[in-house]
Amino acid sequence: MLDTQSDEGYVTADGRKIGGVAMEMKNITLRFGGVIAIKDISFDIRWGEVRAIIGPNGAGKSSMLNVISGFYHPQEGEVIYKGYRRPKMRPYQVARTGIARTFQNIALFEGMSVLDNIMTGRLHHMKANLLQQALWWGKANREEQENREKVEKIIDFLEIQHIRKTPVARLPYGLKKRVELARALAAEPSILLLDEPMAGMNVEEKEDMCRFILDVNDEFGTTTVLIEHDMGVVMDLSDRVVVMDYGRKIGDGTPEEVRNNEEVIKAYLGVAHD
Amino acid sequence: MLYREAGDFKTSYVADSQTFPIKFDRYGYYFILGFAFLVMPLIINDYWANSIVVPFLIYTIAALGLNILIGYCGQLSLGTGAFMAVGAYASYKLMTAYPDFNIVFVIILAGFVTSAVGVLFGLPSLRIKGFYLAVATLAAQFFLIWLFTRQPWFYNYSPTGMISAPTREVFGVAVTGPRASAVSMYMICLCFLVSLAWLARNLTRGTLGRQWMAIRDMDIAAEIIGVNPLMAKLTAFAVSSFFVGISGALLFTVYLGAAEAGEAFGIDKSFLVLFMVIIGGLGSIFGAFAGAAFLIVGPVLLKLLLVNTLGWPTDLAAHLEIMIIGALIIVFLIVEPHGIAALWRTIKEKLRLWPFPY
Asked: By the 8 A CB rule, do B142 and B152 touch?
């Protein structure tokens, strides 16, 4: 059995080193009027791990992701990030602290080319002011080329070279998902949030996406938080899993632990009928 | 056959991201620039300058500005006429208060004044969008025009309520006032247009332009990616109003010479520039040129055709002209809702293969 609670981190079965706590959610409660979306949930995310959040529809998984990315502000509880309590921030400020995400329903900028979409992901690596940009002089020009090189690496990595200049609106669904991942990766995030990256994909596209998620984790050491309904994918990819149901946390641990948890089976995984 | 990128290999990202990646386009652009700067001044006469060329140049600047706001940042505005008036009245106040100040700087300063006013009236965009924002900017239109017609300070207490541009010179050549020649008027407008179009292109291809477009396409996602919506929207209003202000200042000082806010910068001007942007193509620099050309040159060409060539009576031609232009606008929007710029793109894509089917 792995000691997944040790402060220094642990080494997974396949030999990846998982670090200390990157982000800790402490007693988060989120209400919309009288509806309680998240009820007193605590869990942590460690550096370098793939952390999955699973649960039935309406369990509050996406709300949880929205809390992490600063789109919702919980009424109670706190988010400890990199050892400090995170004050209330606007989403764009959270993005600048190194948290990038993809969306359940693709949220690409449809009127822009693939390249421009991914370049937008790098925006807080670009510091040229209005005048420099207007005159295309000094920093503006230099930054554009430097960031283009970084973006091209990600384009190579995700194998989307052929659609670089294509307007996003013309792409099929599977590729759009991949471009969205590229845009999130372009920010060089410390924590990458993926909201159902495999929803609506066929088997081949799912396999590709799994490979990319694992490769990203391997190559850049990006900590990944993942919401997914495909149990096979979740159990294969993730190091630890949080299970939610009706806004509560009903399970937390390695995939094996979660799979054998009575409450989780009852609420979500289901039992085989005789 | 001629128009294609085959064999034109790009070996650097700078070369790959240039404005005109295809050689044919690039030479076309140099040719047009050369023609505009070297040949046009020799052949231009008063009639062409006053009826077509100068208004085309000035309105293109306004259309560029509005295109940044609507086409790139997605913020609908109906206050263009009023912002042009701000530019005009700012240049008038500056010209009369500091007679020795060079007119070029006066016009640029008028742009900055308009920019500030634009940001002020852009503040509602932080809370409202779409048609509601359009209504809020409509308030700017009516309020500012009221201010300029009812507050005597703005027109220096002149008894007629009009403002008129005194003669100002650049390098010893009069560009405003009655002594200004067609060539000098043409050249100052052209210089402003070319440099502003270059600025617009730079702003829209860089990180600021991408932030604007991100806000336009999906504002919530943009914010989560890291775009500060406050900064993006207000810079769009500032830059857009700067362009519109300069266009208003040029319209008053160089072209009209004398103006009255309600008449010269009414709501019809707002709609005219809006139509230019929509017909030309939202989110395209070329679209601003095409839209302005269509709505400025179109009526004049029609008039030449109907009155001079076919010999119809002037009043009948004037009415027909409005009807034909109106019908053309509708036809255009049905055939190509994304404007002339999109039509041009389609033609170019077809041309790359021509005369082969694929």
From this structure: no
CA distances from B282 to B16, B76, B287, B342 (A): 24, 11, 7, 9
E strands, A17-134, in order: 17-18, 21-32, 35-46, 50-54, 76-81, 84-85, 99-101
Q: Sorting pLDDT into bands at 50, 70 and 90, what band is A270?
A: confident
pLDDT score recorded for residue B192: 95
In this structure, the number of other CB atoms found within 10 A of the CB of residue B298 comes to 16
Q: What does the alpha-carbon distance between residue B84 and residue B261 come to, in Å, rounded to a whole number?
A: 9
CB-based contact, A183 to chain B, within 8 Å = yes
Average pLDDT, chain B: 88
Which one-letter amino acid corresponds to residue B345?
R
Report the distance separating Cα B245 and Cα B263, nearest Å.
17
CA distance, residue A107 to nearest chain B CA (Å): 6
* A144 with B17: Cβ contact below 8 A: yes
From chain A, the residues in CB contact with B226 under 8 A are: 92, 95-96, 123-124, 187
CB–CB of B207 and A112 under 8 A?
no
Say if residue B18's pLDDT is above 80: no
User: What are the residues whose beta carbons fall under 8 Å from the beta carbon of A135, sequence distance 6 or more?
Assistant: B199, B202
Q: Which amino acid is at B189?
A: C
Test B214 with A109 for CB contact under 8 angstroms.
Answer: yes
Q: How far is A124 from chain B (nearest CA, A)?
A: 7
CA B13, CA A209: separation in Å to the nearest integer?
28
Q: Residue A1 pLDDT more than 50?
A: no
Residues 6+ apart with CB under 8 A from A17: A9, A11, A48
State the residue for tokens 């066929």. A202
State yes or no: ipTM above 0.85: yes
**Whether B336 contacts chain A with CB within 8 A:** no
* Cβ(A119)–Cβ(A179) below 8 Å: no
Query: Residues 6 or more apart from B48 whose CB is under 8 A from it?
Result: B182
Report how many Cβ contacts below 8 Å link chain A to chain B: 101
At residue A261, does pLDDT exceed 90? Answer: no
Q: What one-character-per-residue DSSP string does B255-267 give?
A: IISEE-HHHHSSH
pLDDT at A194 over 90: yes
**Domains of chain A, each with CATH number or no CATH:** 1-94+230-274 (3.40.50.300)
List, as ranges, residues 122-181 from A with C-beta within 8 Å of B.
123-124, 126, 128, 130, 133-136, 140-141, 143-145, 148-149, 152
A109 touches chain B (CB under 8 A): yes
Domain ranges of chain B: 44-266
Best CA proximity match to A50, nearest among A231, A268, A227, A243: A227
What is the Cα A268 distance to its own chain's centre? 22
Comparing alpha-carbon positions, the chain A residue that sits nearest to B73 is: A111
For B227, the closest of A69, A92, A141 (CB atoms) is A92
